[in-house]
Specification:
The protein has 650 residues and is of the alpha+beta class. Among the domains are: 70 residues, Topoisomerase I, domain 3, CATH 2.70.20.10; 129 residues, Topoisomerase I, domain 4, CATH 1.10.290.10; 62 residues, no CATH class. It is 31% helix and 20% strand. The chain is built from 20 helices and 23 strands. A four-stranded antiparallel β-sheet has the order 8-9-10-11. It has a four-stranded antiparallel β-sheet with strand order 12-13-14-15, covered by helices on one side. The chain has a four-stranded antiparallel β-sheet with strand order 16-17-18-19. Helix 2 packs across helix 3, helix 2 packs antiparallel against helix 8 and helix 5 packs across helix 6. The protein is globular and about 100 Å long. The chain starts with a helix and ends in a 27-residue tail after the last helix.
Length: 650
């Protein structure tokens, strides 16, 4: 029953005046909470997002490290988990037996089902060539590997512990609970009123001793917590402590997070375990979406791109079309469809498909330049629209060509917050010159602004209030030898995380940190500092490598900032430009001309590399082009023609 505020207040006052509150009905039901299935790729990504706030890409990078192997002491490098790109929920028979033994040892036989729990995948086109994600040996507890894992990072320990706990839980008994519903009635001068309350009491914890699953819904999370009611029976009188009325409004669906978007893609049949992390990384890196905490916020670039795609290429962005394309690619991978024939059909035309190339060729001249209309200025009657600038940032425009006004749209202003009145307010302030943005800060979701003073650095964008309050900005150091505009969003995420702690020095017990300073990257422990050749080395540098570097004698700096002598050096005259050097780095030997670095192939002796071979390696590396930075690109448009615009969607 829906009540307006006036009627609700009338009933509240009547209930507050009334006496004789009594229990009308008590109903108790026994319920079972089943153990969650072992992890597959998507559920691991979803749970890491819910519990730790990680992106799918970060989860897969940490999982990859655990799969490839970790030094657990004594020089032994061991892969700690099974393959992490899988749809399968199957566990090997030997693994199930060892898991059951560990449950019996850790929790007792009372938590062990008579037969192993079996799970089947409900994912369409599931790729079940591998097992579910589990520890390679359940006997290697997170606690026993804590020092080794935290030597890499706390994230490695957290993810391994999460996988271990989920694996144990999937083979344990369900949790038993009693769910009680109580109805309380009272006679008032406005009629009889009835109120309800529910509670939950855990009778047997079962798998909850090992693992409690996260939730995307606060309501679901609340329901999972134990909330017992006092013992009551029908006819019992209860004391009234107070009566309140609460306003409730229907809320729109929440914005996507990494976890809920992956779940939605999986339900639609779009994407596969090997592609989910890439899909999410691409939409962020290219500026279609930005992160606000765990929430994914679509940008104006996304809205205006969809304006073009839905208006001119609807059949290619239809969700069912994308799902069928994934199915076709599965058939290609399984050898059931000829890849060349499929590509010809997709790009050219055939089997009833329109063909991407002829569609673009025939429609490109009719594609209007994308705009989103916000409304009409009530004073001037002029249209107010949102457009994209060449740098991918949104701006406002009002009025015809002769008298049009412009204003920038602040990046922290979400599309659904840009109302007509807000747009007119921004237009009245005029357009201001903005600093160049290279990407977004991984934690705050704010823009990273490029600054230059004795070299490039980044500044995390501040709000107007912070600028007026003279809040000190957060600055991020950049490697001096790179072009900041060629940094990818992954590179920016890594740089924003510096300085990073690699672990503890085994001799001094002081932390070892990786930093980038005025003279380049270096490691530091206490007062000891040593330069590092490659600024990316901190991503994978182990404690052992850092200790070895710190143990070496300090070397004076040479011009260019390199303290290591080259393996080989070809004179400038030989290359016709700058010297070509063969260097030794933490990732192995590489060739450099001061601008491009090319890895020396495995099996090739760097000391015997010829000039011709070095130049060929540099040529191939340069041909690959710079890394794609996290910024949307302006698409080439044909001539703008009059077209009906659609209003902005909430």
């Amino acid at each position: 029953m829906l009540l307006d505020e006036r009627r609700c207040e009338e009933l509240r006052a009547a209930a507050d005046r009334a006496d004789g509150w009594k229990v009308a009905r008590v109903e108790t039901k026994d319920v079972k909470d089943r153990a969650p299935a072992p992890f597959r790729t998507t559920t691991l990504q979803q749970e890491a997002n819910r519990k730790f706030g990680w992106t799918a890409d970060r989860t897969m990078r940490v999982a990859q490290d655990l799969y490839e192997g970790v030094d657990i002491g004594g020089g032994e490098r061991v892969g700690l988990i099974t393959y992490m790109r899988t749809d399968s929920l199957n566990l090997a028979k030997e693994a199930v037996e060892s898991i059951r033994k560990e449950i019996s040892r850790k929790f007792g036989d009372d938590y062990l089902p008579a037969k192993p729990n079996r799970y089947s995948s409900k994912v369409a086109n599931a790729q079940e060539a591998h097992e579910a994600i589990r520890p390679s040996s359940i006997e290697r507890s997170p606690e026993s590997l804590k020092a080794a894992l935290q030597g890499l990072s706390k994230q490695h320990y957290d993810l391994y512990e999460l996988i271990c706990r989920r694996t144990l839980a999937c083979q344990m008994l369900p949790a038993d609970a009693a769910r009680t519903t109580v109805e309380i009635e009272v006679a008032t001068d406005a009629g009889e009123l009835r109120f309800a309350a529910s509670g939950k009491r855990i009778l047997f914890p079962g798998f909850l001793l090992a693992y409690v699953e996260g939730s995307d819904s606060p309501q679901e999370e609340l329901e999972k917590k134990e909330s017992p009611l006092p013992e009551l029976a029908a006819g019992d009188l209860v004391a009234k402590l107070g009566v309140e009325s609460k306003r409730h409004e229907t809320q729109p669906p929440p914005r996507y997070t990494d976890a809920t978007l992956i779940k939605a893609l999986e339900d639609l049949g779009i994407g596969r375990p090997s592609t989910y992390a890439t899909i999410l990384s691409v939409i962020v890196d290219r500026g279609y979406v930005r992160n606000r905490g765990r929430t994914l916020i679509p940008t104006w670039l996304a809205f205006l791109t969809m304006e073009v795609l839905e208006g001119s290429f609807q059949e290619f962005v239809d969700l069912k079309f994308t799902a069928k394309m994934d199915e076709a690619l599965d058939e290609v991978a399984n050898g059931k469809q000829d890849p060349k024939k499929y590509l010809e059909t997709f790009f050219l035309r055939g089997n009833g498909a329109p063909g991407l190339r002829p569609a673009v060729e025939s429609r490109k001249d009719d594609i209007p330049f994308p705009v989103m209309e916000l409304g009409t200025d009530p004073e001037s009657g002029e249209r107010v629209i949102v457009r994209l600038g060449k740098d991918g940032h949104a701006f406002l425009q009002k009025g015809p060509v002769e008298t049009k006004q412009f204003a920038n749209v602040p990046d922290d202003l979400e599309p659904d917050q840009l109302t007509l009145s807000k747009a007119l307010e921004l237009l009245s302030q005029g357009r201001q010159q903005e600093a160049e943005g290279l990407g977004v800060h991984p934690e705050s979701g704010r823009r990273l602004l490029l600054r230059k003073k004795n070299g490039y650095y980044l500044e995390v964008e501040r709000t107007d209030d912070e600028i007026e309050g003279k809040v000190k900005p957060q600055w991020i150091s950049l490697p001096s030898e790179v072009d900041p505009r060629e940094l990818s969003q992954d590179d920016l995420d890594y740089l924003c995380g510096l300085p990073s702690t690699l672990g503890q020095h085994p001799a001094t017990h002081e932390p070892i940190t990786f930093r980038i300073g005025r003279y380049g990257p270096y490691v530091q422990s206490g007062q000891e500092m040593r330069s590092v050749e490659d600024w990316r080395a901190g991503k994978s540098m182990s404690v052992e490598e850092a200790v070895e570097l710190l143990s070496k004698p300090k070397q004076g700096r040479k011009s260019g900032g390199n303290s290591r002598a080259p393996i080989q050096e070809f004179p400038p005259s030989a290359s016709g430009a700058s010297p070509i050097r063969v260097m030794s780095g933490f990732y192995g030997p590489y060739v450099t001309d001061g601008k491009v670095n090319a890895t020396v192939p495995k099996g090739t002796d760097p000391s015997k590399l010829t000039l011709e071979e070095a130049l060929e390696l540099l040529r191939k590396k340069a041909a690959q082009g710079p890394s794609r930075r996290g910024k949307g690109r302006q698409t080439k448009r044909g001539k703008a023609k009059p077209a009906t615009r659609r209003s902005k969607k909430g």
